[in-house]
Specification:
The chain is mainly alpha-helical. The protein has a single domain, classed as Helix Hairpins. The protein is 68% helix and 0% strand. The chain is built from three helices and no strands.
Length: 136
């Protein structure tokens, strides 16, 4: 799926396709999560569709709750859904950022490899300051 460190950097069009693929995966993750929240708040807590959508969207977006559930079942669902939304938010952020972070790291590694090739091979370390002393 990703190019290895010895392979050239993916061209721009391929990178855009990769970002689109990752964004699509996040959409596949977020939309059902939103539907679960809307249905849960509507049927368990008895809120209207719009209030359920608002609450689910705010929790899923990481903003926090807008209303406090009044029933015990609604409070239990709300707490479980809030924890679930936190995981979905972190996962979505990681999946969206992965292509960008990989590209930066791959470019950095490619630049480092190019510098090694230009210097004539392996990157050489400076000699240790005590290298001139005799070893017993």
């Amino acid at each position: 799926m990703y190019e290895r460190k010895h392979e050239p950097l993916l061209h721009r069009r391929g990178f855009y396709r990769r970002v689109a693929r990752h964004t699509g995966f996040v959409g596949i993750l977020v939309v059902p999560s939103l539907v679960i929240g809307v249905l849960g708040f509507h049927f368990i807590e008895g809120w209207g569709w719009l209030d359920s959508l608002l609450e689910s969207s705010m929790l899923l977006g990481g903003m926090g709750p807008t209303q406090v559930p009044e029933t015990t079942a609604g409070k239990i669902f709300g707490s479980i859904y809030a924890l679930f939304c936190g995981l979905v938010l972190l996962t979505a952020a990681a999946v969206i950022l992965t292509p960008f972070v990989h590209r930066v790291l791959h470019r950095f590694h490619a630049d480092e490899s190019g510098a090694r090739e230009k210097s004539g091979g392996e990157h050489r370390r400076a000699p240790h300051r005590d290298a001139h002393k005799k070893q017993p």
